[in-house]
Structure formats: C-alpha cells, structure tokens
Amino acid sequence: MNRTIGFTTTIPVEVIFAAGCTPCDLNNIFVTDPDPMRYVERAERDGFPKGMCNWVKGIYGVVMEKAVNAVITVMEGDCSNTQALAEILRYRGIRTIPFSYPYDRDKKVLAREIEKLMTELAVGEETLALVEKEIGKVRSSLALIDRMTWKERKVTGAENHLWLVRASDMLGDYREYHRMAEEFLAEVEARQGIEGVNIGYIGVPPILLDIYEFIGDAGGHVVYNETQRQFSLPFAADNIVDRYTSYTYPYGVFARLADIREEIGRRDIKGIIHYVQAFCFRAIEDVILRETIGVPILTVEGDLPRTLDTRTKLRIEAFIEMLQQK
Ligand code: SF4
C-alpha cells in the first residue's frame, strides 16, 4: 500500500522512495497552500504559543489536517523545537520516526541513522541503490537549473528557489519531477539574460511570500539560494552517506560558512540577504555571518506567511541601491 511519509526537514529521501512510499515535505505543503494561515491558526487553537516560530505551527497544522501515515522528525541537525513537536504529534496519535544528523559529521553515525531508517521502512540495499541512481539524474537537472540562474542568467531567483526547495520531496514523484525539470530547462533556453545586481540569499527558506519578486523588481538578481541549493544535494558523491555528509545545513554555521564563501566568489555575489525567522534560534548565527562573510549583508526577519511589509521593502530597496552605487 502506498503510504505518505511526511518530514520536518530534508532527510535522505531516496529511502522513502525505495520503500515505495510518497515523501511529503510538510514545510512546502504549509507555505504553498493558498491559505497557509489556517495551519498556524489551527496550531494556536490547539494551544501553541503566539511567541513561537510559525514554521513549527504550520508543520503541526499540516499534519493535523492532511492524511500522512507517519512523520520523520529530525531530532538533531535542524530545529531546536523538533523534540517537543515530535512529542505532541505522538501524543495526538501520529506515528513518528526519529532521524538525526550527527553534529560532528561522523560518517559512521550517519550510516547507522540511515540504516535505522531503512529498517523502519523495510528497504533493502539493492532497491535503494537503484533509486539512488535514478535520482542522480534529477539532481543533475536541478544543478543545471541552478547554473542557468547564475551563469547564463536565464532563471529567476524565485524559480531557482522553487525548483531547489522542492527537491526535498520532488513533489512525491521523482520521475515526474525530472520530466518537469527537463521541460523547464528547454523552455528557459530561449530567454534573454536577466539583469540586476547579484544577490545571495542565505538562511532558512522564507515564509514571506513575495520576497524574490520584490528583490527582482528592486533591481537585484538572486543568483544563490544557500539552503534550497543544499536541499538539492548537488554533490558528486559515491554513496548516500557521503552525499548527506557533504550537505551543510545540519552541521552548524561553520559548515555552512565554507559553502557560502565559496559560492560568493564563484557567483560574483555583491551582497547577501540573510533571512531569519522570528523566534528562531538560528538568528544567533547572524552575528557570526555578519562578521565573517566579507560582502555587505542585510538581515531580513519574517514571521507569518504574508507579503513583505513596507519597512522591509524600503530596507531591501535601499540595500540594492547601495550595492548598485558601489
Ligand atoms: S525557522 Fe528556526 S525555529 Fe523555525 S522551524 Fe526552522 S529552524 Fe526551527
């Protein structure tokens, strides 16, 4: 029977596909819903505090309202709230499967975590190897979309964001996602190059609904989406363990910093927009990033799934103007 397996952040999705299940990134369901506020409201009705990250409330609301058979909760390497979220989900009768990324990037520990997940979902090594090989083709197409953003400048920052952020579950069907990506690549070929000052976007994906469109309108071209690109796992790796240890997001700010610096140079990025989510512990990382990144940085905070407020728009406009004048 095909089961839908939700998850709270990117996990080795190959294992879910190899189990014959449908993966579902709960974040994406939340933020792409025509009315994402209803999930936040559902969580608050159930007692979640106002002063708490709305991504967490959104995930909870989605699980309560959609039919998911189990939720993989990433206990280490993502969010400080996940343990409590996993507990309330279990309390509500949802099957939860814990998964952890080892903070020290220990390959043996990660291999054990992946094995545990395989056992939980009854996946054999041979089936996994076949799926991995096929998914490699999707990852190559996504890497090309990323390249078409910064090198050929034919893909907008918003499109780049969408294609890479959805790599976490490939919309539940990696073959179809591959077909869609190839079709998109053929479509953008004929486009003119996008103008605008090169902007890098770092931090968790935005809850703000129009940030990319606004940056584009203000004269910027987002050529790098840090976390979303990481979700697409664009690494030349021999096996699943190597691939998910090359992935920087779960392993702290210093692992991320090396990738950010490299991409700033490679993509000729003039300024960075660092997105932080209200009430997220990751805002502390902003201190380190500001002092080490080496290009101008604007920190933008979002709270609810809404469009940008006037003050944030003015700040982004002034930032891009300053970069243009430099
Ligand atoms: S934005 Fe921060 S607090 Fe919110 S879910 Fe993500 S990691 Fe957790």
Can you characterise this structure?
With 326 residues, the protein is of the alpha/beta class. It has a domain of 122 residues: Rossmann fold, CATH 3.40.50. Helix content is 51%, strand content 14%. A 4-stranded parallel beta sheet has the order 2-1-3-4. A 4-stranded parallel beta sheet has the order 6-5-7-8, sandwiched between helices. Helix 5 links the parallel strand 3 and strand 4. The longest helix has 26 residues. It is globular. The protein starts with a strand and ends with a helix. The model has no long low-confidence stretch (mean pLDDT 97). Bound molecules: iron/sulfur cluster. The site of iron/sulfur cluster has 9 residues, from helix 4.
List the helices and strands and how they pair.
Layout: E1 4-7, H1 13-18, E2 22-25, H2 26-32, H3 37-45, H4 54-65, E3 70-76, H5 82-91, E4 96-100, H6 107-120, H7 125-150, H8 157-165, H9 174-188, E5 197-203, H10 211-217, E6 220-225, H11 226-231, H12 240-246, H13 253-266, E7 271-277, H14 285-292, E8 297-302, H15 310-325
Parallel strand pairs: 1-2, 1-3, 3-4, 5-6, 5-7, 7-8
Helix pairs in contact: 2-4, 3-4, 6-12, 7-8, 7-9
Determine the strand fraction and express it as a percent band: 5-15%
The whole-angstrom Rg is 19 Å
CATH second-level architecture of the domain at 4-125:
3-Layer(aba) Sandwich
Strand numbers in spatial order across the main sheet: 2-1-3-4
Which secondary-structure class do the elements indicate? alpha/beta
The general outline is globular
CATH class of the domain at 4-125: Alpha Beta
